[in-house]
UniProtKB/TrEMBL annotation:
Keyword Transmembrane helix: yes
Protein name according to UniProt: Mitochondrial substrate carrier family protein ucpB
Coiled-coil segments on the chain, per record: none
Solcar repeats: 31-115, 123-207
Source organism phylogeny: Eukaryota, Viridiplantae, Streptophyta, Embryophyta, Tracheophyta
Organism name: Lithocarpus litseifolius
Transport in keyword set: yes
Length: 209
């Protein structure tokens, strides 16, 4: 609804009685982007060794048959043969991606929900699912090149090039389209994961015990 002349515009979310300030305070977008990106960057820094193990496990024996190595044995092998620093291969692109991806994934959810509320006059569970799916899918499509560079660095412990050097090599030798390898499954996963996580969390806040 409109307030007095000269005042900023706000809206009430149907069925909730809450005032949506996204139209009145667009700075909230920067706030959500920054806080979301920072929190996910911290989590990424702590859990990055697990991501290195995940990538190595997924890529072992590519195109071959044979016994697979478990996570424990792989961890011992990396520490023994490559050193502890290998557990943080690709950390720079991982942190870059987490800030942008995390900020967009969580930061775009509320604005997307606000737009849907303005268009459809509702913020029901289906609107929340669609908003989460859009935010997750868009964030993944935008950050997929950084993910590709990160995985390449994690798989090559002897690589002397940094993230920028590897990015240039991929573009020059494989073409720019190589930076979006696997973007389809990645978008589907991110869309479904973000939609389920954020819509469930959003709905749970409405439940009164």
């Amino acid at each position: 609804m409109d307030n007095q002349p000269g005042s900023k515009k706000s809206s009430i979310i149907p069925g909730s009685g809450k005032v949506n300030n996204w139209a009145a305070s667009p700075s909230h977008l920067c706030y959500h982007f920054g806080t979301s990106g920072l929190s996910i960057a911290v989590a990424t820094g702590v859990t990055h060794p697990l991501d290195v193990l995940k990538v190595r496990l997924q890529m072992q024996l590519v195109g071959q048959r044979g016994p697979l190595t478990g996570m424990g044995n792989l961890l011992v092998h990396i520490l023994k043969n490559e050193g502890p620093r290998s557990m943080y291969l690709g950390l720079a692109p991982a942190l870059t991606r987490s800030v942008v991806y995390g900020g967009l994934r969580l930061g775009l959810y509320e604005p997307s929900k606000y737009v849907c509320e303005q268009v459809f006059g509702s913020t029901n569970i289906f609107v929340k699912i669609a908003s989460g799916a859009f935010a997750g899918g868009f964030a993944t499509a935008l950050t997929n090149p950084v993910e590709v560079v990160k995985v390449r660095l994690q798989m090559n412990p002897n690589l002397r090039r940094g993230p920028i050097g590897e990015l240039r090599r991929i573009v020059s030798e494989e073409g720019i389209r190589a930076l979006w390898k696997g973007v389809g499954p990645a978008m589907a996963r991110a869309a479904s994961m973000t939609a389920s996580q954020l819509s469930t969390y959003d709905e749970s806040k409405r439940v009164k015990f």
